[in-house]
Design brief:
Bound molecules: (3R)-3-hydroxy-3-methyl-5-(phosphonooxy)pentanoic acid
Largest sheet: 6 strands, mixed
Order of helices and strands: EEEEEHEHHEEEHHHHEEHE
Helix content: 25-40%
Number of strands: 12
Distance between the termini: 35 Å
Shape: globular
Structural class: alpha+beta
Strand content: 15-25%
């Protein structure tokens, strides 16, 4: 028997950084994300005899074979085991997966991957054990245990995650144009899991929860009242706050490359000159994410054409 599911990635504007419970991935602060419907992971499951599941790339004609590191494969299969235990099933599966965005693009795929695996595995396990399907919120909570940020991929377009509550929030900007500027194709030296631990040694970590809560309150107010300039300013401050935690950790580290800094400078200059632009954010990596309102489609194309094409990959 075979099952198949897909799930999108998401980008946080208020960042999840630091955990109060690392085993269950309970975040130290609430986060708010926009779901990236174009960046998708597909996962299929095939039930096989025996007890040991294994991972394989999901082959798509015309697309080069998808690869995962052995660490990523173990994490993926461990999440499947967690779901099997939850549902009281002992059989094995071949798990096949791929992303529709290029391997080695430097884009984290854990959010979309774990969300898609949780979806397909619960579907298969419910069928095999004749249990009722979990609600969307229950699916999100199960996914959260595998990868924290994956829980936000269950609600679109805006998702609010606070402690063990994950839900959709209604905000006016229901459709935005997302671009991610790829500044490094390499796998990050410090994973986000490691970053969650390391930031705790920063002297700025004290009161980070309060700062994130204030940023969230202000961002929700800005988005609700369609104050795009304020939304840009809060998001700018918020991702810099997270990156400052990395840079002030006891053993400091950074994801900001010279290219990231140059691009941020350029984006800031454009904002100052024109009074408008994209909301800008960065995750635990060097890549720069841009979100434009739909009516800025021409501006988005112009910026891409004038400053990005020929220098960087843009997805
Ligand atoms: O879900 P994780 O453990 O990969 O953490 C994600 C952390 C950030 O991407 C940096 C921020 C976020 O909220 O997605």
């Amino acid at each position: 028997m075979q099952w198949f599911a897909q799930a999108p990635s998401n980008i946080a504007l208020i960042k999840y950084m630091g955990k109060t419970d690392a085993d269950k991935n309970i975040p130290a602060n609430a986060s708010l994300s926009y779901t990236l419907d174009k960046l998708i992971t597909s996962v299929s499951l095939e039930s096989i005899p025996g007890k040991e599941s294994r991972w394989e790339p999901l082959e798509t004609p015309g697309i080069s074979t998808f690869r995962l590191s052995s660490h990523a494969i173990s994490r993926f299969l461990a999440h499947l085991e967690f779901l099997k235990k939850k549902m009281g099933y002992q059989g094995a599966f071949i798990v096949r997966s791929n992303n529709n965005f290029p391997t080695g693009s430097g884009l984290a795929s854990s959010a979309s991957s774990f969300a898609a695996l949780t979806k397909v595995a619960t579907r298969a396990l419910c069928e095999l054990t004749q249990k009722e399907s979990p609600s969307q919120a229950e699916l999100a909570s199960l996914s959260r245990v595998g990868s924290g940020s994956s829980c936000r991929s269950f609600f679109s377009p805006w998702c609010l995650w606070d402690k063990d509550t994950i839900k959709e929030v209604e905000l006016p900007y229901t459709k935005l144009i997302h671009q991610v500027i790829i500044l490094s194709h390499e796998e990050k030296k410090i994973s986000s899991s490691k970053a969650h631990e390391l930031v705790k040694s920063s002297s700025n970590y004290y009161q980070r929860t309060a700062r994130a809560a204030e940023n969230l309150k202000q961002l929700l107010a800005a988005l609700s009242s369609k104050n795009w300039v304020a939304a840009f300013e809060i998001c700018w401050q918020e991702f810099h706050d997270m990156h400052r935690l990395f840079e002030t950790a006891k053993e400091p580290f950074t994801y900001m490359s010279e290219q990231s800094k140059a691009l941020l400078h350029l984006l800031q200059k454009q904002w100052h000159e024109t009074g408008d632009g994209p909301v800008v954010t960065m995750d635990a990596g060097p890549n720069v994410h841009l979100l434009y309102r739909m009516e800025q489609a021409d501006d988005a194309e112009r910026f891409k054409h004038n400053h990005l094409v020929g220098h960087y990959d843009v997805l």
